[in-house]
């Protein structure tokens, strides 16, 4: 569930779904999909466990930048926009009530800057703009 205790459905890539199914077949728990590691196995994997696991993966990958689950959310939003997803669909995926909130999650990437620059140049070429100065 998401913020405010709201249920949210999020699509999973096929590869992720298959990996989760394989994990579940070998780590099946009678009550929990993701039990917590540690002394008590009847406790669900929680926010702190996710943050700790992410921190460990980041260190193992040799990444020295601070990465949080929230920064992964930013990446998710940005990459979907780069792939052409519209802002309204992204709003639904992120579970935002306001489109303005979704717009704040997005960031202008270098790829988008390049695309904007390329589009501007193509437009100028089509208009046959000639900036030669006459004296």
UniProtKB/TrEMBL annotation:
InterPro entries: DNA_brk_join_enz, Integrase-like_cat_sf, Integrase_catalytic, Tyrosine_recombinase_XerCD. One of its GO terms (biological process) is DNA integration. Keywords: DNA integration, DNA recombination. SUPFAM superfamilies: DNA breaking-rejoining enzymes. Residues 1-120 form the Tyr recombinase domain. GO terms for molecular function: DNA binding. It comes from the Bacteria. PANTHER family: PHAGE INTEGRASE-RELATED, PROPHAGE INTEGRASE INTD-RELATED. This is Integrase.
């Amino acid at each position: 569930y998401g913020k405010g205790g709201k249920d949210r459905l999020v699509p999973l890539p096929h590869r992720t779904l298959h990996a989760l199914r394989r994990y579940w077949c070998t780590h099946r728990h009678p009550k929990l999909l993701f039990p917590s590691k540690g002394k008590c196995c009847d406790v669900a994997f929680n926010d702190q466990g996710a943050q700790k696991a992410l921190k460990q993966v980041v260190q193992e990958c040799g990444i020295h930048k601070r990465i949080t689950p929230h920064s992964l959310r930013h990446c998710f939003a940005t990459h979907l926009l780069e792939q052409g997803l519209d802002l309204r669909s992204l709003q639904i995926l992120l579970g935002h009530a306001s489109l303005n909130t979704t717009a704040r999650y997005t960031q202008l990437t270098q790829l988008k800057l390049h695309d904007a620059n390329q589009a501007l140049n193509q437009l100028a070429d089509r208009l046959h703009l000639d900036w030669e100065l006459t004296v």
